């Protein structure tokens, strides 16, 4: 019999977590997510959490990249090689719109952990995207509550540009990735053409988003010793995947 996903997830954590509303919480009921920008405030809205999975996210990202939501999921599962992975961490998982389908691509005993700071988003994830291979955790992605080399695959789709310290978050993702594991991110992209880059960056900044160029995450992954780095750019988004060298013990 498969182990309960909540208990399996507890076994991976290096911090105490309490089960609240169906998800594990390392921050506590009195801790609120920081919401200094319009974009971050939206991500902590119960209304946005309700419409995000079925309306906002698929529509917005289709216009931003030209890919359908299903095409994104297929690309992610392939890039992360989930058919041979066992533990997946989905950082900034929102309502679990990627966590659940990616969990289905794992082997039978696999576990997908969705991680977010927003209580409304996690409440939707528990309600809409729970399953025998999924567990959701509330915490701060700048301090992931897992030990080094815990996950075979790690992703963060459509969130790094919302975060106040995106490169610190990426560093944490690399820390908890096992040798031989794979990491994938989908984030904003502003072409290097100066006038276009300036316009896109200024517009995004006005609502609290960060537009990244072609080199920031590729350089970060390279400096961290990751290999097999591949970057795809589509319109206003970039998809970057890489592997941590070595073999998991």
TrEMBL record:
Methyltransferase domain ranges (all copies): 89-181
Pfam families, alphabetized: Methyltransf_25
Gene3D superfamilies associated with the record: Vaccinia Virus protein VP39 (3.40.50.150)
GO biological process: methylation
Example GO molecular function: methyltransferase activity
Keywords, comma-separated and alphabetical: Methyltransferase, Transferase
Protein name as catalogued: SAM-dependent methyltransferase
């Amino acid at each position: 019999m498969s182990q309960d996903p909540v208990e399996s997830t507890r076994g991976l954590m290096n911090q105490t977590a309490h089960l609240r509303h169906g998800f594990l919480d390392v921050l506590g009921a009195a801790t609120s997510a920081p919401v200094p920008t319009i974009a971050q405030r939206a991500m902590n809205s119960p209304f946005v959490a309700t419409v995000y999975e079925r309306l906002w996210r698929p529509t917005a990202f289709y216009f931003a990249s030209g890919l359908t939501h299903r095409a994104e999921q297929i690309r992610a599962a392939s890039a992360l090689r989930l058919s041979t992975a066992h533990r997946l961490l989905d950082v900034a998982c929102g309502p679990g719109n990627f966590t659940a389908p990616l969990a289905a691509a794992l082997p039978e005993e696999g576990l997908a952990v969705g991680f977010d700071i927003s209580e409304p988003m996690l409440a939707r994830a528990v309600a809409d995207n729970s399953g025998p291979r999924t567990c959701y955790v509330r915490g701060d992605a700048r301090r992931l509550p897992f030990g080094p080399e815990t996950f075979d695959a790690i992703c963060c789709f459509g969130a790094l540009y919302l975060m106040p310290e995106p490169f610190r978050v990426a560093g944490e993702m690399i820390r908890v990735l096992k040798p031989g594991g794979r990491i994938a991110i989908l984030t904003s992209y502003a072409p290097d053409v100066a006038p276009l880059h300036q316009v896109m960056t200024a517009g995004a900044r006005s609502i609290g988003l960060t537009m990244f160029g072609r080199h920031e995450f590729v350089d970060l992954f390279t400096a961290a010793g990751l290999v097999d780095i591949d970057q795809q750019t589509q319109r206003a988004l970039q998809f970057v995947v890489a592997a941590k060298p070595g073999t998991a013990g």
